[in-house]
Specification:
heterodimer; A: mainly beta; Folate-binding fold; two-stranded antiparallel ribbon; B: Ubiquitin-like (UB roll); FAD/NAD(P)-binding domain; seven-stranded mixed sheet; 25 helices; elongated
Chain lengths: 97, 1004
């Protein structure tokens, strides 16, 4: 079980959180202007990175706030957490492939 | 003779406390401090089990958690425990155990016939049965299940209690041998908070079996005692004996199981049987020791053949002679220690058979000096004896070690102590994600790169000598404490003086040759618990399996409850040899939790029965109970289902409740509906974005029904939202969806629309909601309020007013889920019961009738109102429901773009329709599939399914809602529902509104 550093509450058990998938996928400003494929791409296609992955978490059984995290999907290290809308921190790329 | 094999003195047992126990129905005696295994051996009992597949007689192999054979069924129902390792089971007065997988008994076992036909049961025989005619498979399955296997699960519910607890510490040390104790000393001296877990009942590890070891010139156990005193005085140190760390998860989270009462004769009722420790450690020190590996030789599984280290444990710790005349068989120097211990205890040593070309090493030299008969470059090539080894054949090895020269000479014996070297207990290290590296000299995998904050010390780290264990333990404890932020100045004093006696040098022959090749004549067991032989591995390789993971799964090697602790390295070595590849290239199989089996009970803990899941009850629950309601679980809520009176059937009760609503007055506890309070200047804009319809023009005091979609365009929730004030709304959600809807709204607000000024608060439990419905609803409410005008003009359908009802501050919503004139009255939850009772009393003259969820469902189905989760299943759009009218064409909303996908416009999508059976008395089962025309047998093309189905008392016939392909174009057409039992119901497709389609009753 991960120990996730909620930016608002501090480190808490993974069971207090819910996962929100890949971060920084912005909702298109004008969905109507998109073709089916572009819309499907927004809706369904997310990355499956082996290495550092930027993802969203919500502290559902705590402060109920959403935040972003950078997690190494292989080692499960949480390398950084940052607020919604914030810019991802500069992190060394990790490549396992 | 009782305890005929007990030594007169020595050992860590308490001869003043004899304990009586039963094994396979016979009474024996042992002493406090014994395990079941040591007590059996003290009584000369070696045959304790039959093997899994061939039912071969098996004895005790080890003295610890690695035991493959001595698994017993402990106790009786309901406290029966299968697959208990006799080698770890502490003896208590009155203990009763029996052998598993044998009938009628372990001495004469009918299943042993399997051994005679073993050629029919090769590696993968189970998988091969899949390929035979499928119709026969179930029969094989039945036979295999009965012929093979281990213990039996208890037939009754477990009467014991189990606990779970959390712990946090700076340094968690796993293993209480010399390395672990030294690590605890060093870490504790820095002031760090230390938890030390030891699976044994006593601390000291291997020192418990080695009376000859000394530390600082004194017996090593004195050092252990002093160390425990120092640790015991430190309030920051918690020592957990009888506690197995069985799992190492991410971020230094480990699971430990503590056996609390099994070892107690009298078990206090206040204590749990076991306790699960969930430990989050800043740093972890693994001092888990090493496990001796077996030698793979012909018929190496007879009772009386055990590991050399186990032999020493029984002699020295338990003062038990495991035999009278022994042969020691080894590939290393360490086992000579066992030979010397045997000699000292008065067991005659018939031969030390050494695979090495010369008996090198300190212990070998001692043995030579002691005059023990040593046969270097020899091997045991065969063993004999039906229920106990009686003779071994010993022959010289060829120069390459791959064959035998000569015929073999018989040596009489009743005990064979074997050693194939030692393999570090790297299980937890590997579970944590740490990488292992092959060590050629030590012939084992060692921890290499840790993946977490993990330190390794002692035999687990390849340090097999005592001095090195102490040194590494102190260093690891100090490093760990430093990493946890503690000052380590002087913490790890100079390591105490001790001698390093390892087991090296060794000669690594993973397969000991026999006169005939493996697979002919005797069986070379690699995994005794799963009855896997060298021939099975060779067969798997011949059949094309190359990866060690595949060989493992095909043969089952290392897949028993012991997970191959005494044989996995041999299996890997044999695969490497057969493939002609270096052993490290073959690699190890994955180590997964648990390290040793864990009871289901401790995982369940107290989370059983009423504590399994929270139960939510409304403020009016007690009244429903008194009224004899039956309840339905909706999410965690317990809602009244219906209120049978005087032995009424469900059908009668529901019909009565439904009729009351339509003819006079019904009352429903609707408190469970989700309620979300929405405040802020952008509240209307939020509603615009999450609901399909427009909200900007909703006036204060009015209500509107909304349909919420996921971004994929599918219906996810519905409900009525009222505008309470300028920037203030109250949203209702379906009962089961309240938390999900709040989460959905919060997600959009926080992640996508942070610019919106809106606050959301769940107020579901702050309000009790009572709904009254029926032609007399207005009359009753009017009698209880002075300040709310109830005329259709003042409070029309879909509007809201605030005031006092029966003197209670209330919000009154004129909304209806029944199709009748209805009011939902919200009052603070603490007033809920008072309001309900007042309404019941005042409504007596109208025959007010409490109704439950079932009647509510019938009433709404008569009106064709959907229930999200019943008419929808995550694949249904508003268009499929015929609710185009609620989908705005002007504004954007979540899910809108998905509704424009070409697939959404297809005419053969499943659409909501009404269904009327030709036989008006027939109620279709919900979920029934619909076809154009029923065929004799499946398959037949299915065109839809029934989503809701009831007997409608108001219509005097059955009604149903269904989703049918292109249903809206099929009104008036017939479809068929083939039902279980061969009957086919013919139905006509109709519109989904069956009752009062104009809605006059609603608005009136």
């Amino acid at each position: 079980m991960l120990l996730i550093p909620c930016p608002y509450c501090g480190p808490r058990e993974e069971t207090e959180f819910s996962y929100g998938g890949e971060a920084h996928i912005e909702r298109p400003k004008q969905p109507e202007a998109l073709g089916d494929e572009a819309w499907a791409d927004y809706l369904f296609m997310t990355g499956n990175t082996k290495g550092v992955f930027l993802e969203r978490w919500v502290h559902s059984h705590g402060c109920r706030r959403w935040f972003n995290a950078a997690r190494d999907t292989l080692t499960n290290e949480v390398l950084a957490v940052y607020e919604m809308g914030g810019k991802p921190p500069k992190l060394e790329k990790r490549s396992y492939v | 003779m009782p305890q005929g094999f007990r030594l007169a003195e020595g050992g860590l047992i308490d001869r003043a406390r004899p304990l009586g126990f039963r094994f396979n129905g016979r009474s024996y005696q042992g002493y406090a401090g014994d395990t079941l295994a040591s007590a059996l051996l003290a009584n000369g009992v070696h045959l304790v089990a039959r093997s899994y597949k061939y039912h071969r007689p098996r004895g005790i192999v080890s003295a610890g958690p690695e035991e493959p054979n001595a698994l017993v069924q402990l106790g009786r129902d309901p406290r029966s425990d299968p697959n208990t390792r006799a080698t770890q089971l502490e003896l208590v007065e009155g203990l009763a155990a029996r052998s598993q997988n044998c009938w009628p008994g372990v001495g004469f076992d009918v299943g042993a016939l399997n051994g005679l036909v073993s050629r029919l049961l090769p590696a993968g025989f189970y998988y091969k049965t899949f390929k035979w005619p499928a119709s026969l498979w179930m029969k094989y399955e039945y036979v295999i299940r009965h012929a093979a296997g281990l213990g039996r699960a208890p037939g009754e519910r477990d009467p014991d209690i189990y606990d779970k607890t959390n712990a946090h510490c700076d340094v968690l040390i796993v293993g209480g041998g010399p390395a672990g104790l030294a690590a605890a000393l060093a870490a504790a001296r820095t002031g760090a908070r230390v938890v030390l877990a030891e699976q044994d009942c006593q601390l000291g590890g291997a020192l418990l079996d080695r009376p000859d070891e000394t530390i600082d010139g004194k017996p090593a156990l004195d050092w252990v005692a002093e160390t425990l005193i120092e640790l015991g005085r430190n309030p920051e140190v918690r020592i957990l004996p009888r506690t197995t760390a069985f799992a190492y998860y991410d971020h230094n989270y480990l699971a430990l199981v503590e056996r609390v009462t099994d070892h107690l004769g009298e078990k206090p009722e206040t204590l749990p049987r076991e306790r699960l420790w969930k430990v989050r450690a800043h740093q972890v020190v693994l001092a888990t020791g090493a496990i001796e590996q077996q030698l793979v030789f012909s018929d190496n599984d007879r009772p009386g053949i055990m590991l050399a280290g186990a032999g020493r444990t029984y002699l020295n710790r338990y003062a038990v002679k495991p035999g009278s005349r022994a042969v020691v068989f080894t590939n290393n120097d360490g086992a000579y220690g066992a030979a010397l211990d045997l000699q000292k205890a008065g067991v005659s040593v018939a031969a030390v058979v050494d695979l090495r070309t010369a008996p090198e090493g300190p212990l070998s030299e001692q043995a030579e000096a002691a005059g023990l008969p040593i046969l270097a470059e020899h091997a045991i090539v065969a063993t004999r004896g039906a229920k106990r080894v009686g003779q071994v054949a010993v022959a010289p090895l060829g120069p390459e070690g791959d064959r035998i020269t000569g015929d073999g000479e018989g040596v009489e014996c009743d005990l064979v102590l074997c050693s194939g070297g030692w393999s570090p207990t790297v299980h937890l290290f590997s579970q944590s994600g740490g990488r292992l590296a092959w060590d050629e000299l030590r012939g084992c995998f060692l921890p290499d790169t840790p993946a977490q904050a993990t330190h390794v010390a002692g035999a687990c780290n390849g340090a097999f000598g005592l001095a090195a264990c102490l040194e590494q333990g102190l260093a690891a404890g100090e490093t760990a404490a430093a990493a946890a932020g503690f000052e380590t100045k002087g913490a790890g004093k100079a390591p105490p003086q001790a001698t390093d006696r390892g087991f090296l040098p060794a000669r690594w022959l993973r397969l000991v040759p026999s006169i005939e090749p493996a697979g002919r004549g005797g069986k070379h067991f690699v995994d005794q618990q799963n009855d896997v032989t060298v021939a099975d591995i060779q067969l798997a390789l011949r059949e094309g399996y190359r990866s060690i993971e595949h060989v493992k799964r095909y043969t089952g090697t290392g897949m028993g409850t012991d997970q191959g602790k005494t044989g996995n390295v041999n299996a890997i070595g044999i695969v490497a040899r057969e493939l002609g590849r270096p052993l490290p290239e073959v690699g190890v199989t994955t180590f997964r939790p648990p390290y040793t089996p864990v009871t289901f009970g401790v995982f369940a803990g107290r989370d059983v029965d009423d504590l399994l899941d929270p139960v939510r009850k409304t403020a009016i629950h007690a009244w429903h109970e008194r009224a004899g309601a039956l309840f339905e679980d909706v999410g965690q809520w317990r809602r009244p289902w219906y209120y049978p009176q005087g032995g009424e059937s469900m059908h009668r009760a529901v019909a009565r409740e439904v009729e009351a609503c339509r003819s006079s007055l019904g009352i429903l506890d609707a408190s469970t509906l989700g309620k979300i309070d929405i405040k802020g200047q952008d509240a209307a804009e939020l509603l615009n974005r999450v609901y399909t319809n427009a909200w900007s023009k909703l006036e204060t005091g009015r209500c509107r029904y909304g349909l919420m979609l996921g971004e994929d365009g599918m219906v996810m929730d519905d409900g009525v939202t009222a505008r309470l004030g300028e920037h203030h709304y109250l949203m209702t959600t379906t009962t089961g969806n309240a938390a999900a809807v709040l989460g959905h709204l919060e997600e959009w607000l926080q992640t996508e629309w942070p610019e919106l000024q809106v606050h959301l608060t769940s107020v579901t439990e702050q309000f009790a909601t009572v709904s009254i419905a029926g032609p007399n609803a207005r009359r009753l409410l009017g009698e209880l309020t002075n300040d709310i005008k109830l005329t259709p003009k003042a409070l029309p359908h879909m509007s809201f007013a605030e005031g006092a009802v029966a003197g209670i501050p209330a919000r009154v919503f004129r909304i209806s889920f029944t199709g009748e004139c209805a009011y939902e009255i919200n009052v603070p939850a603490s007033y809920g019961m008072a309001l309900w009772q007042t309404l019941i009393r005042a409504g007596e003259k109208y025959d007010i009738t409490p109704y439950g969820t079932e009647a509510m469902h019938v009433l709404r189905a008569e009106k064709g109102y959907i229930i999200v989760g019943q008419e929808t299943d995550g694949s249904v759009t508003p268009f499929d429901l015929g609710m185009d009218w609620i989908v705005s064409k002007k504004k954007d909303f979540v899910g809108k773009r998905s509704l424009a996908r070409s697939d959404m416009a297809k005419s053969d999508r499943k659409q909501l329709v009404g269904l009327l059976t030709d036989n008006p008395q027939e109620v279709l089962p919900e979920g029934a599939q619909l076809v154009e025309k029923a065929l004799d047998k499946p398959p037949m093309p299915m065109i839809g399914h029934v989503t809701s189905s009831y007997m409608s008392p108001n219509l005097g016939r059955s009604i149903a809602l269904a989703l049918v392909k292109g249903g809206r174009e099929r009104h008036g057409q017939k479809v068929q529902a083939p039902l279980p039992g061969g009957h086919t119901a013919v139905c006509e497709i109709a519109g989904p509104v069956f009752f009062d389609p104009e809605g006059e009753r609603l608005r009136g």
